[in-house]
Amino acid sequence: MGISRDRWHKRRKTGGRRKPIRKKRKFELGRPPANTRLGTKRIHQVRCRGGNLKRRALRLDTGNFSWGSEGCTRKSRIIDVVYNASNNEMVRTKTLVKSCVVQIDSTPFRQWYEAHYTVPLARKKGAKLSSEEQEVLNRKRSKKVQKKYDKRKETAKLQQSVEEQFSQGRLLACLSSRPGQCGRADGYILEGKELDFYLRKIRAKKGK
Predict the structure, then answer these.
(1) Which residue among 107, 132, 140, 163 is least enclosed by CB atoms within 10 Å?
(2) Are 207 and 60 in contact (CB under 8 A)?
(3) How is the beta sheet containing 42-47 ordered, strand by strand?
(4) For the whole model, what pTM was predicted?
């Protein structure tokens, strides 16, 4: 028997049995879940009603992530699934679904931040920078351009918990797209009270 989204097999609100008035119909069909896992990109196309296409992601390892407070979006590698409010099994199996919390590579955002503010971000004291990084931070600039960067530096302040993540090279992010429907794993970097909330949840889960 196929998966059906009809209501004839459900009971009434009062608890009584409902007699089916017809057999299953094509427009009532359902499909098995995608269970998108972490891995090398693999996407299947599914033809849907009206000739529309869904992109069913079976494996994904990258996505576009937005850094809301800085207004910056970069493509980044998804490293791990760390929290899922609905089911711990999805964390164990590294299943990507909407609203799950993942760890992503912080390198693209660090590069943008250092180029934008010309300030080293969460670097250890005495850490050697590559020649390219030194070029970005210490490039010779005209007085007008330098004045612009100096003004930016005044607002270059990060939440401490976000800065700690940059020092580890991994950021916590939340997926906002539906990988099984659109074939993408896009999302946003967690900040502020939302980040504090999920950090508490992750610590509580580790403590068990």
Answers:
(1) 140
(2) no
(3) 37-38, 53-60, 42-47
(4) 0.86
